[in-house]
Amino acid sequence: MPDFTPTPADKFTFGLWTVGNTGRDPFGESTRNALTAPYIVQKLAELGAYGVNLHDNDLVPIDATPSERDRIVTEFKQALSDHGLVVPMATTNLFTDPAFKDGAFTSADARVRAFALQKTMHSMDLGAELGAKTYVFWGGREGTEVDASGKLLDALQWYREGLNYLAEYSEHQGYGYRFALEPKPNEPRGDIFLPTVGSALGFIHTLDRPELFGVNPEFAHETMAGLNFVHAVAQAIDAGKLYHIDLNDQKMSRFDQDLRFGAENLKSAFFLVKLLEDSGYDGPRHFDAHALRTEDEAGVWAFARGCMRTYLMLREKARQWSEDAEIQAALAAYRVEDEELAQLTAFSQENAQALKNRTFDRQALGRRGPGLEQLDQLTVELLLGLRGNP
Ligand code: GLT
Ligand code: MN
Ligand code: MN
């Protein structure tokens, strides 16, 4: 039986805000005490994580003085080096403070937009100081409840100008960040701009420096919208734009639950892990989730351990899947190749004419059974431990 204990080589990361989540929700107060950042670093290192990510204000309170900031950052860096953890990704909190209640980069108030740029530049400085190379933009407050504001086209232009500005800043400072836009359909706004992975991919190509921007898809966010997360990630990989990923779980069409990875949709989690591993994605596997509100601190570490362990178990299942002779035979039978047609479907005027004249046995094509029921059942049996090594 393989050992599913994570090591830093697995590149598992957590946000300070994830294991640090105290269980507050819109209807109830915290159920757990806050944990300090150095303590989180120590515990994550003990569990075998690779790194820890943060918003500026997860570490430094928004109203800290410069000397308080320096003391906090020094202590945090000490903890990182004591425990061998890295900070691969940083981001800005542009959603908690009431100044951002109607948007940050997309606020109709030019002063708020400028303040959002200022806060993000300071946060990018902090991330760079900690060694982060990926910078995430989750536009939690970038959206609307009512469209009476009439700002939709302006908001997209303001968003674009803000991102262009910050990309210039990063290049000018020599930070070398790669930026990852994180889509979400709603919550906390009624409608959030750039609601899906596809929307973000489209928007990136309207930016001045599209090569600096990719996406940070989150399992829960596509699932909230009723979309297939694995398909969204495949499209991001296909576009060369999977710059980061937020792993968690979610029941469809509900509030953002941020459940433990694999807690709800095990089969999708399997196909996701398989896709990531097969694609050669070598970035961090970031868990953007938190322990259930019911849990105490022991539950938090059980949650963190569980996220990583499930990923590793699914990775092992993916390996078994690609070595299972019956599954591979079913897969091979599913695909039909045809050399003559491969030539005819390479475009030339002659080939096009030949293809137009070609006869197809339409009825036979329609009669063919591709064997997907059997292939899927074999997958289920493998996941349930009934094939190969359990
Ligand atoms: C917030 C959100 C997440 C984002 C984080 C980055 S903050 O917890 O729900 O999905 O990834 O800003
Ligand atoms: Mn989420
Ligand atoms: Mn997220």
Automatic annotation (TrEMBL):
Alphabetic keyword roster: Carbohydrate metabolism, Cytoplasm, Isomerase, Magnesium, Metal-binding, Xylose metabolism
Cofactor binding note: Binds 2 magnesium ions per subunit.
SUPFAM superfamilies listed in its UniProt record: Xylose isomerase-like
Primary subcellular site in the record, as a coarse category: cytoplasm
Molecular function (Gene Ontology), one example: isomerase activity
Names of required cofactors: Mg(2+)
UniProt similarity note: Belongs to the xylose isomerase family.
The protein's name in its UniProt record: Xylose isomerase
